[in-house]
Amino acid sequence: ARSPKPEARSPKPEARSPKPEARSPKPEARSPKPAEASVSDQNRKIVARYLDELHNKGNYGIGDELVGTDYAQTNPHIKAQGMPGSKQSVQRLRDGFTDYRLVVEHQVAEDDKVVSWGYFEGTHNGTYRGVQPTGKPVKFSAMFIHRLVEGRIAESWNGSDRLHLLQQLGAVSLPD
Hints:
Elements: H1 34-56, H2 62-66, E1 67-74, H3 82-96, E2 97-110, E3 113-124, E4 137-149, E5 152-160, H4 162-168
Parallel strand pairs: 1-5
Antiparallel strand pairs: 2-3, 3-4, 4-5
């Protein structure tokens, strides 16, 4: 016996999907241009490395790699300019304070500038600016602004709370 021939079915009409609407991303959903973000991030990383190498590791040669030849700095505590002044300032701190270190707590980069804020800490076991060793632990705030040109530090503005440092050492006191 022959099985009956299946009925011919007419093809189902294809379900048409609606045309996708052309949507532009919401302005707040757009990400920054990759080139802009990467330059700021690259500058932030350069400054973070510079501060760590110079202050925490005592690598004074880092300036040859990361600092421009016309480097200028503004810091009321440093008399010598350029990298010689930076090296002199860091060496003075490293000589006066064992276990000296810089802790960067906040860092913001935008375009060619990087702002870093944190604190210095260490134990006063060496002479610092004429103050004989006290053995006291110290901690005082510091702020840096670095401007970079073509991946090298071209200029910096630095400041730290030296008054607070000297108060901790007992070298100065404020009236009540």
